User: Fold these one by one.
Assistant:
Number 1:
Amino acid sequence: MKIKLRDIAHGRSGDKGDAANVGIIAYNEEGYEIIKKYLTAEKVKKHFDGICKGEVERYELPNLKALNFILHNTLDGGGTVSLMLDAQGKTLAAALLRMELEIEDKNQN
Amino acid sequence: MKEKIRIASGQGFWGDLIEAPYKQVTAGDVDYLVMDYLAEVTMSILQKQKNKNPEYGYARDIPGLMERILPVCKDKNIKVITNGGGVNPKSCANAVLAVAEKLGINGLKVAVVTGDDIKDRLDEILASGVELNNMETGEPLTPYKDKMLSANAYLGAFPIVEALQKGADIVITGRTTDTGLTLAPMIYEFGWSATDYDLLSAGTVAGHILECGAQASGGNFLGDWESIENMANIGFPIAEAFPDGTIIITKHESLGGRVDLHTVSEQLLYEIGNPAEYITPDCVADFTSIQLEDLGNNRVKMYGVKGKPETEFYKVSCSYSDGYMASGSLTYSWPQALTKAKAADKILRQRLKDLNLNFDDIRTEFVGYNACHGPLAKELPEDDINEVTLRVSVRSHDYASVERFGKEIAPLILTGPPSVTGFAGGRPKPREIVAYWPALIPKNLVQPEVKIMEL
């Protein structure tokens, strides 16, 4: 079954030089298990195809039911040099929440 | 020893809500007011101001703000800690003392923390064999040395602790870490040592929560943002700190906003890298150890924070001049808003090309269509778009090219596609690009200094 990431999580994003950080926080434990399993660095990299031109790193924070993604080479040179309207990547958390995740339907097992 | 202290966040950046610090000291009890004014680019702006006038170079909102809050702070014994001294903390302190004198406040002790500014020492530092390599690219600094506008080491909490021990009512620093401003009063009040790494990390995490102002108390909240009450009168966060490193994040009851697990968690995730290693001059905090408990009524308890010893380096933030940029906008209306904006962009680019101008980059964005999420934006049917703003930006090391670009936007109104408006701001002016150079410096090459100035 397909679920919308924004139904199970929220988040915040910002800049770290030319990289953006996108923190995704699940609303509950069940949501965290889903993002931990399905929201991989590879999927995030593919989602940001054409936006993130570098690697995507992923870190787990189970204590906060959260994942932290670092999107390298994303902000056109970074906050002060970038010509982008969103030079600090402030809207990238919302952009990631556009994602839909294909997950196993527990009820069908 | 006090049983607990309450530290209020007053500003999240230079340009934040001017009313916030005043409300923080008047809408309830606090012991400290901490205000972060410095972003990476701010130091270079302040340095330029100081180059023009040696008395400038600090956040000049501070004297006006002090005029309002000093009488309250004096009355309620609230100490103020800020890094708004920028590249001229001493001038800032003089300005604050002048305000105090005007208000007839006597016996005020203002501490100035300096030693972070290493711009005039770059030759000596480079000569000693420290190359100040760019942490992102690995390049050595020497070839860029003459272009450097500012160079500052990020100092930690301990110089502020020293200032408080010397009886300071107000502490004004240059480039001190945002987190150090909040950690310092905890070290001072509770007698934490420089090797109590778990405690220092707890205070550091509290500092991270407070450093962006209301972003921890309901502002910019991507969860259920519409349910945040009274954002017009939003309360900035307050850290209630206890000697054992337990921290309760809260806000004044009478003010708006919300402090709960979700709003605090969003701020914890903001602009962090590897969460297990949040590096500051004071300690290396482990964000994966943070435990949060929602106590209700806008109170979130934080405990269990672990940390490791600090590194042997200070982070250095340098800025240098790296060319010019300009950005211009025009708005096109229905029908065919996007098609018109795209045609205008094509015409503009042809004209720039025919003029043989030199640009490192030209970027076009369609605001209202896909400027924020690019290829992820939902494609809207052409005829459904009421209006779209064409935003074109250029970057170049040639000032004349950027200046000429600014003169090519307005003519599009009479020489391009129809139903266009929105050119009220005048010609876009070239802005100097200030690029950022992060580096590391061994701690023994930087000597923080604390000086007390008294009225």
Number 2:
Amino acid sequence: MTARIETPAQALADPTCRQALVELLFQLADDDLVLGHRDSEWVGLAPHIEEDVAFASIAQDEVGHAAAYYGLLVDLGEAESADALAYSRPPDAWRCALLLERPNGPGHYLENPQFDWGYTIARHYLYDLFEMVRLEALVESAYLPLAQLAAKVRREERYHLLHMETWVKRLARHSSVSRARLQAGLEKAWVDLYGLFSLGPEGPAMAALGLLPGGRDRLWQTWRERAQTLFAEAGLPWPGDPSPVMLDGRAGRHSADLEALLGPLTEVYRLDPTARW
Amino acid sequence: MADERLEYHIYEVFAQESQMAPAVHQFSLLASSPDMALILAKENFLRRQKAWSVWVVRRDHIHRTGPAEAEMFDRMDKTYRETEGYRYLKEKWRRYKQEPLTAQGMT
Amino acid sequence: MPDDYRQYLIRLIAMHGISEIMGALPEKEWVPRAPTLHRKLAILAKVQDELGHGQLLLRVAEDLVAPLGMNREDLLNGLFQGTIHFHNVFHMPAPTWADAGIIGWLVDGAAIITQGMLAQGSYAPYCRALERIIAEESFHIQHGESICIALAEGTRAQRQMLQEALNRWWEPLIFFFGPPPKSELTKHQDLGLMYRLRNKTNEELRQRFFHKYVPRIQALGLTIPDPNLRLDKETNTWHYTQPDWSKFKAILRNEGPMSRARLTLRHSAWEQNRWVREVLSTRAAVAV
């Protein structure tokens, strides 16, 4: 039985706890912000107008969740504002998994984008299922403010998961073309999949302190079981367990894709970080 | 044919604000199937308003009267089936509460 | 429904819907670059609403073209082939964050004036869509006002950015309501009045825009880039420099500064993702 931590002050009192909690919150916030940013690049260009509208809501939810997690970091004294955390950290301070920083496809969002809907859906589904499993663990977190936030976030995530499952099944079953596109997307996402389950150097402490009950093993086991169920339902072959990745985003090691993402993300903010926008 | 024009099903979307509320028509959208129509309906038409349930129906499964039939909903005086046609009762009750009817004068 | 009434409606509503879809693009450029998390959320929601308005209006237009054997695919192809125009303002560049603010505040402000009139028109399905749209436009204007006021209250560089954006957008805003009366360009305007789809002329709408927004623009300490702009108090009419209306015509022919780039962006995304629309179409699933 792990001790309940009800306030930021209690978390700060124990340096081990503080460090594990801060790392965990950066993982949660950065995953959501980076994917929400990628999603937002699609706006106005999605394959179907109704889907464009629906997908833009998902992008908003992800950014909104990130803002809420950054808020918990502000409460822990990590910065003065959520914006300072989102807009002024160098790439090696980011804790997102590599899967989420990858572009939607070749090209830039303003110039000749050749975004890939097969990859977009594949990546989003794999992440949304992971996020749901992680949130289910977090609602039992020893850190009460996080447990309370996770319960709220989980409600919105139910829609994301339903949305992505509907697409996966549809693409898998419709035609050989759509199935091939989805499978290519899954293969590409699978390369980065291992890193999604990394909790970084603080992972064992997150589990031991009950900040993320069950730790990596619980996430992986639950995730795999549910993903396999959907793959079977959609008639998709199981690609096998993912191989370890070279770069662990949770340890602050990223691809050039993150730097390319942070450029536009912070472009206006950097004009004058002290100004009010 | 690869470049043959694509056709879509039209789904009409309804939403209930609460369990007690009637399902109110929102708008319509293009989708391939009911499950797809449902996930699209939520964010296309219920981004701000409160909702408890959303319904989708393929338009070609709906039967409706058109503008030409609208006239048949006009009616002549049917106040005999409305409370409006019985307003005079209030005045009667007021009078008889003051001055009850008696058998006097009745034969 | 008389044929020429249908044709007029198709032209009006298809252009309106397509303009909303294309109108997402200038502001979309600033969605990934919005300078705070709150701004990022708000501009995402705003651009999303524009696409949602496009969806509503296209659905109305699609129902009108259905008896002619056409659907959404034909409307989008009309855009790509240049037979369906999109609104002049969306052919203009939006090179700074302040442009996103001016679009939200003044372009949407102009749009709500036109849409408020159109919502009283004679075609009920269009009016129903407009009612939903207008309810959301009030958020859009406040979103734009909020960006512009923050910049106006900000540093010298921020104020300059805002002033420069206003300078860029003033002429497009004059163009917004279309040419004044007695011009060869106004025949559609007259038909609209005849069919009770509009009850005000282009010039009446433009005057309304001046009355509402000139004082507000000045209240933020901004200079309107027209030395001839003044209110004649006796007639309650604003005088302004007539822009070169041949330029307006050229923009509508897709010869504006960003016409080609935005059409190419929209068109290539549409073509690249055709395979996804096949999945969403009535084309039967093939067993795999």
